[in-house]
From TrEMBL:
Organism whose genome encodes this protein: Pacificitalea manganoxidans
Single Gene Ontology MF annotation: metal ion binding
Name under which the protein is recorded: Probable alpha-L-glutamate ligase
Family: In the C-terminal section; belongs to the RimK family.
Cellular component annotations (GO), alphabetically ordered: cytoplasm; ribosome
Keywords assigned by UniProt, alphabetized: ATP-binding, Ligase, Magnesium, Manganese, Metal-binding, Nucleotide-binding, Protein biosynthesis, Ribonucleoprotein, Ribosomal protein
InterPro entries the record matches: Asp_endopeptidase, ATP-grasp, ATP-grasp_RimK-type, ATP_grasp_subdomain_1, Peptidase_aspartic_dom_sf, Rimk_N, Rp_bS6_RimK/Lys_biosynth_LsyX
Length: 464
């Protein structure tokens, strides 16, 4: 074992791996009491009892790329006076520094050092007593290289930063909402429930904003929409505003709008050649007979375009009954469609829960005795089910057709293959989690993390 003291020069290469910064050139200044790290877009977030701060770093002096997003717990806020006499109130975080194979914990203040030659200042408080600083020497420890930021392997190994996620929901105590909040917080993220109808928007070309309860909402890494059918127009307008700002939305406004309009939804399924029950739509009362004829013989399903959770869906067992239901709906000036009744489904359907490009869980829903609707809200029951390859592929294709990253795709098992009944853009989690015994909320949060993780910076090539 060497008796030589651990030496540092006045400049050294250091690593802050906990922050995802594997290589920084730091100035070692024993004349400075505190340490400082270059940071911008500094924003506190999280609960008051355990506040966090997120920020971004340009690790390479003189360059705007790469940009490394970071987050950490706040230890303190401290007034720091710089060498030019200016005093600034800074956030203080704790992390681990590594130099030449040796690591130790330090406290760092966050400040904008963009114009400085060194992205980090290492002050005397951060130096253990047994370290010797040689002010006339440089790089006493092994040197690193900024090219490490262009390594895909290093990028993949970066720590997952804490995300700020908004769940758009009018029901904060709803099972699905509370599960998403719980799983997000369990993974170290801050998840806020925002009442969609209390959002309002500032529309302008340079700085579009979303406001809530008299204040501008902060920058969210992701938004998980849980938009009720009754507020679809306003809810999708709020989502469009987040999309305009550049926030990642798990489900986009176009997909939600299309999935809520039953006629539009069936047209999208037809365009993508996805199997569904034969469906017809007409506006004129004179076309009732032809409308029924296009679908086939009774029994038939007559369904309101705005129906949800099985409400507004009627089974007409005879042609005469179908004509009566159609006449009644027209009397109410309601928009509806007529659909073939798949007898072999026998009051059962399959709910496939799609996240990303995978079916992550599935359940079979069975109608209550005397009912044909298998919706759990109508008294149906659910149990886990093994789906076929064809059913899995159909569900994934249906979700992709609507450009939805999270969807509940309802299928009927017909004699000629699976038929898509509906694509739900705000599927509930309670039935699917309890029947499949899978942690679907955790899978959703994992997908959000993948989507908002920054892409590796491109290596710049020298111009010839």
């Amino acid at each position: 074992m060497s008796d030589q003291p651990f030496r540092l020069g006045w400049e050294e290469w250091v690593s802050l791996s906990d922050l995802g910064l594997p290589a920084l050139k730091a100035k070692v200044d024993t004349g400075a009491r505190t340490s400082a790290l270059h940071a911008f877009d500094i924003e506190p977030f999280g609960p008051k009892h355990k506040p966090r701060v997120r920020f971004a770093v340009h690790p390479v002096p003189g360059r705007d790329e790469p940009v490394i997003p970071c987050s950490a717990e706040i230890i303190d806020r401290r007034e720091v006076t710089s060498s030019n006499g200016e005093t600034e109130l800074r956030y203080v975080i704790g992390t681990t520094i590594s130099v030449g194979g040796r690591s130790w914990p330090i406290e760092i203040t966050l400040t904008d050092r963009y114009t400085m030659a060194y992205r980090m200042l290492l002050g005397r408080q951060a130096l253990p007593e047994d370290i010797v600083v040689a002010p006339s020497e440089s790089f006493c420890q092994p040197e690193l290289d900024y090219q490490v930021y262009h390594s895909a392997r290093v990028r993949e190994a970066q720590p997952q930063r804490a995300l700020r996620i908004a769940v758009l929901s009018r029901e904060p105590n709803n099972y699905s909402t509370t599960r998403l909040v719980s799983e997000g917080e369990k993974r170290g993220h801050v998840v806020e429930v925002i009442d969609t109808t209390r959002c309002y928007m500032a529309l302008n070309a340079l700085a579009p904003e979303v406001h809530y309860d008299g204040r501008r909402l902060p920058r969210y890494d992701a938004v998980i929409p849980r938009i009720g059918a009754s507020i679809t127009p306003y809810g999708t307008a709020v989502i469009r505003q987040f999309e305009t700002i550049g926030t990642y939305c798990v489900n986009g406004s176009e997909g939600i709008t299309a999935s809520r309009d039953k006629l539009h939804a069936h047209q999208i399924l037809a365009r993508h050649r996805i199997g569904m029950p034969t469906t017809a739509f007409a506006n004129s009362p004179k076309d009732t007979g032809n409308l029924i004829g296009l679908v086939g013989t009774a029994p038939l399903i007559v369904k309101l375009l705005e129906s949800t959770q099985g409400k507004g869906v009627v089974l007409a067992e005879t042609k005469k009954a179908a004509e009566s239901v159609i006449s009644a709906f027209r009397g109410l000036r309601a928009n509806f469609l007529v659909q073939d009744f798949v007898k072999e489904a026998a009051g059962e359907d399959i709910r496939c829960f799609v996240v990303g490009s995978k079916v992550v869980a599935a359940m079979r829903r069975t109608a209550a005795p005397g009912d044909f609707r298998s919706n759990l809200h109508q008294g149906g029951t659910a149990e886990t089910v093994r789906i076929t390859k064809d059913e899995r592929e159909t569900a994934i294709r249906a979700a992709k057709a609507f450009r939805l990253n999270m969807a509940g795709v309802d299928l009927l098992r017909a004699s000629d293959g699976p038929k898509v009944l509906e694509v739900n853009s705000s599927p509930g989690l309670e039935g699917i989690e309890k029947s499949s015994r899978k942690n679907v909320a955790e899978i959703i949060m994992s997908e959000v993390e993948k989507k908002v993780r920054p892409a590796p910076a491109r290596r710049r090539t020298a111009k010839s």
